[in-house]
Design goal:
Layout (H helix, E strand, L loop, with lengths): L1 E9 L2 E6 L2 E7 L3 H10 L4 E6 H4 L7 H11 L2 E5 L5 H10 L3 E4 L1 H5 L2 H10 L4 E8 L2 E4 L4 E5 H11 L3 E6 L11 H10 L4 E4 L5 H10 L3 E4 L1 H5 L4 H8 L1
Parallel strand pairs: 1-4, 1-12, 4-5, 5-6, 6-7, 7-10, 10-11, 11-12
Antiparallel strand pairs: 1-2, 2-3, 7-8, 8-9
Helix pairs in contact: 1-3, 4-6, 9-11
EC number: 5.3.1.16
Family: Belongs to the HisA/HisF family.
Subcellular location: Cytoplasm
């Protein structure tokens, strides 16, 4: 299992949001400095989200993200504001190892197949953001159907992995809800990266034991509720 420290970028700053709300942002400074700090603590991969892109300004933060790619040299998965095949291909050409496509994958499912055929399944991750068991898109405001059904569809279309975000617990720092993750892992054969609510090393261990392919550490990592080195020890 891989442990991905999150580097979410909004207005040029590394931030964390509560329940995806822009007005809830907590700032943690320079994104490259944050990314480098996690690498110094042992991270060999990063989870970068261009929040400005998710909120409609896809070009914002592009320079910062390219700088992180160039300076860190670790495995990077990137999401946020990827609205077209051209957007996804542009980032993959730039040096991102894997793109995360969410709203586009739901609205235009065949784009998953097109990108997987062109770049290889391992570089395409489909986002499964779920609230009350339903996939939600467009800033988590619009429901689009059962999350397990969508996960199966994304796998059939060629996605090499799934990013499952449990919106119900995301950013609250109250722990994970393990049942929906377990159900998703049992439903698909491709790796599931779990995000949302991971607050303790026990949460990491539960996800590791159930067979998650990865875990994203966000709010609790930045607030100090979970120590990155301790989280690494769980999977070693």
């Amino acid at each position: 299992m891989k442990i991905f420290p999150a580097v979410d970028i909004l207005g040029g700053q590394c931030v964390q949001l509560v329940q995806g709300r822009k007005e809830s942002s907590r700032r943690y400074g320079d994104p490259l400095k944050c990314a480098s700090g996690w690498i110094e603590e042992g991270a060999d991969c990063l989870h970068i989200i261009n929040l400005d892109g998710a909120f409609g300004d896809a070009g914002k933060n592009a320079g910062i993200i390219r700088e992180i790619i160039d300076e860190t040299g670790v495995f990077i998965q990137l999401g946020g504001g990827i609205r077209s095949i051209t957007d996804a291909s542009g980032w993959l050409n730039t040096g991102v190892d894997r793109v995360i496509i969410g709203t586009m994958a739901v609205k235009e499912p065949e784009t998953v197949r097109t990108l997987a055929d062109e770049w290889g399944s391992e570089r395409i991750c489909a986002g499964v953001d779920a609230k009350d068991g339903q996939v939600v898109v467009k800033g988590w405001e619009e429901s689009a159907g059962d999350y397990l059904s969508w996960a199966e569809k994304f796998e059939e279309l060629g996605a090499g992995s799934l990013l499952y975000t449990n919106v119900d617990v995301e950013g609250l720092e109250r722990g994970i809800s393990s049942e929906p993750v377990r159900d998703l892992i049992s439903k698909t054969k491709i790796p599931v990266i779990a995000s949302g609510g991971v607050t303790s090393t026990e949460d990491v261990k539960v996800l590791y034991d159930m067979g998650a392919g990865g875990v994203v550490l966000g709010s609790a990592l930045y607030s100090g509720k979970i120590n990155f080195k301790d989280a690494l020890e769980v999977i070693r």
